[in-house]
Give the backbone structure.
Amino acid sequence: MTQTRPIPWHHLCLVASFAVLAGGAGPRPSPPAASGDATDGGAHPDPGAPQRIRISAGLPPGGAAGVTPGVEPGARGALRPSGPIRIQSRAEAAALSSQGTGTAGDPYVISDLAILGDASPCAFGFFWSDTRADYHLALRDVRIEGWATSQVYVRTATSLTIEGADLGDEAAGAASGVRITGGDVTLSRVLFHALSGDGIQITGDRPVTLTARDCRFEERDTPWGAGASAFAQLNVSGNVNVMLARCDLDARTLAAGVRSSGSAHWTIEETRFATRIGIDTKNSADGLLVTACVFETERDAIRAHAIDGFEIAHSEFRDSGEGAPLMAFRESGPGRAHHCVLTKTRGRGDGNECVALIESRGIRLDHHWITASSGDAFVQQSPAGPAEIRDCVLEGVQGHTVAFRDAAPDANRGIESLWLEDGRPADESRLALGETAPLFYAAASPAGGGGS
């Protein structure tokens, strides 16, 4: 099934312009009186550029990451007890539904149930497998408890909507919450907790489209199982498109918020990551688009390996543990990360950068506000091609502004307008150069000069 992905306003900056956008969440400096575009740089310095970069970085105007205020995930109202549900035909779906005709606009609705999945002969609380289905289903206001391989299993040619659900059982410790091996699945107001496996798992060889909005992942009194992720996509050979919006991943025992190990397109918006690793993705040739998110992770907020066509924008990175960069891209590119606020206070030396580019190429880093960096701000290591680093404000950088490691000469082009906390542009004294990395440097200067 092909997904049409509309382009939100904050994605248009990638294709329309690199101009500075105004706004942000939380306290921000007042706009300076100076006018002009912070992207000028070079021989025409703009004294107001650092202030405008600070204002434009971070969440969009009025932005917040996590579940929409006032929305409480989980089932509502009185629930009727039910045994496991198994559907493999239209007749079975119609017999179990309380309303609907099975069309996309009027799906069969199964609602107001407390499903106990531990007696299921198929080891699932809710099981729907019908690859020839010409009907659509909706689960509304349900709770699924008890041990099961997965609380919900979906393999269909059409769509399933789950709205208002509670998946998890502290006593039984079910495996995964939702396993999808085919179909178009939409989750809204779903609460995940007390699972020994992944919250949502995508696997198999059929096309999958997943949309998750206003979902929450919690620990409560029971930690998640070792290695579990909130969203996991495992070596899928089919067409996979995932959209996450306004989700709150508030579980420190989750190994990752998102783990993707196959080709897929991920769009993640207004989501909070309070997990061990935020996004861990590799071999994702179809792209990664992250906007207006907050990362409060123990390890890397974004760990990308062999990913093409990514964009990270208008997000806030609120520290990571010792030995973990905020963002690390290995064998990746092209891509762009821009208009983010980055804070790194723990760890010294290698591995404690704000952004690390390793064996990557064609990556642009611009309009970031680094509020603190206990290590180097940016690292370019063994590059496969040039990178561009420009129009950033760097405050409290304990290491180097840019550190080149095992870099060929042509990998260091395109570094300009890196402003320090006192309003001065960065100069060569703040750059670490490897023996094989002669510097090409064109930083703006308040006096109107540049260096090379």
About this structure: The longest strand covers residues 150-167. The chain has three helices and 33 strands. Residues 1-44, 433-452 have pLDDT under 50 and may be disordered.
